Amino acid sequence: MPGAERQAPQRRTWSESEDQVRELAEVSAVELVSTVAVHLLSAAALRCGLAEEGEEHQDLDEARTLITALAGLVTASAPELGDTHARALRDGLRSVQLAFREASVVPDAPGEGPGEKYTGAVS
To answer: Which of 24-28, 29-33, 56-60, 89-93 has the least mean pLDDT?
Structure first.
């Protein structure tokens, strides 16, 4: 905003950082990977225009990056996540890949869409 003063970022104290490390140490790897994947999935859906506001937040360049990162994460971590977690994430990934394809004015060739180098062609 014009005229608004910028505030310097707050620095964390050693004890606050130590507390965050302790909290992070208590989270399982599966939970952490799943949480990151859900955040990527939500952001990709938003950028594909799937939010209530629709096209207001649509940005297919951003969506492509998010979907590709999600595809890499899901593909690489699926063996460790287990069938239940991996299947849900793969389903969500496929949904945003299809939403991206539908939203694109000039569709990518099969196998060339976001994340498809990790997942194979999505149709």
So the answer is: 24-28
**Which residues does 117 contact at the CB level (< 8 Å), separation at least 6?**
68, 71, 111
Name the residue with tokens 């302790």: 22
The number of C-alpha atoms within 13 Å of 74 and in the hemisphere containing its C-beta is: 28
Q: How confident is the model at residue 15 (pLDDT cuts 50, 70, 90)?
A: low
- Rounded Cα distance, 65 and 42, in Å: 13
Closest C-alpha to 82, from 90, 71, 70: 90
Between the CA of residue 106 and those of 27, 100, 101, 102, 116, what are the distances in Å? 42, 11, 9, 10, 16
**Model confidence at 7, in pLDDT bands (50, 70, 90)?**
low
Q: Give the amino acid at 75.
A: T
> Of the candidates 91, 99, 88, which has an alpha carbon nearest to the alpha carbon of residue 47?
99
Q: Give the separation between CA 29 and CA 51, rounded to whole angstroms.
A: 29
Chain centre to alpha carbon of residue 59:
14
